[in-house]
Fold this sequence. Notes:
By secondary structure, the chain is an alpha+beta fold.
Amino acid sequence: MIKKLIGGETIDVDCTVEIVNTFESLEAHVRFNDGTTVAPGDEVLVHGKPIEVPYGERQEFERRATVKRAGIVERLWTRATGDFEFMELCEFSFSEERL
């Protein structure tokens, strides 16, 4: 029961890392090959050397990843504070413009 509260379970999985570095988009996605999913508060560490994708290209890499599961307390905290952290990323602009 205590372990579920504080978390700490780790699993190692194979994954595919997709990197897109084009004029239209700069993206990085990790897809777990066995269908593993992550939830709020979980941590993912992708192993291997740093990935560099030249401008204008899209590439995929096969890697190994470690997923550390969050406990109930950490999961609730992440959900409760996540909206506030998201708002820090938003930029608001108000202008007074009269026609």
